[in-house]
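mind reviewing these tokens:
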Amino acid sequence: MPEQILVTSGAQHAFTLVMALLCRPGDRVMVENPSYPNALEAMRRARLRT
């Protein structure tokens, strides 16, 4: 539905919004290795445990 579309300024912005919606500080998240460095930094800033 058109009402369900959110346009962001880029993938990093979208990733940060999704993390804010789904995760709380201290939550554990799984990442692949190697991983996108900016995503790892965003998780650190959100105080998530990788």
